[in-house]
Design brief:
- There is one protein chain.
- The protein has about 150 residues and is of the alpha/beta class.
- It has a single domain, classed as HUPs (Rossmann fold, 3-Layer(aba) Sandwich), CATH 3.40.50.620.
- The chain is about 35% helix and about 25% strand.
- It has 5 helices and 5 strands.
- A 5-stranded parallel β-sheet has the order 3-2-1-4-5, with helices on both faces.
- β4, α4 and β5 form a beta-alpha-beta unit.
- The longest helix has 17 residues.
Length: about 150
Amino acid sequence: MNSNVGIFPGSFDPITKGHEYVIKKAANMVNELIVAIGENSTKKYLFSLEDRKQWIEKTFKKVDNISVRTYTGLTIDFAKKVNANLIFRGLRSGVDFEYEKPIAETNQILDPSVETVFLLTNKEFGMISSSIVREIIRNNGNANSFLPDAINI
């Protein structure tokens, strides 16, 4: 596998400024970063896959080494499919770490050649989550201050 390829998986329903910050940080660590939008059949999304993909593409259109792809199935299998050996995950708090750690450990068992890298978000974005942003939007609030500048919902 090419050590210069990483993936940043998520549902991005919607992408937030916190995502944007950590994705840019990850992109600086690899030659190629794939923002991977996973499709979970048990999850009900507020926004369509096409909208989420377009928003991410628009957010990073000026960043040459970032591309956007969608996938189904296990993230570790997608990483192998695109020859990535790094999976980047953003952490806002210890709660995120407690959630992400067993997933990373499981992925390590499934494929020891793929490493998970945890990146801390900027403290300015630590309280932002897609679920909070969705709730603001569902209730007709203005969520634009939590979204990348390229996005206006």
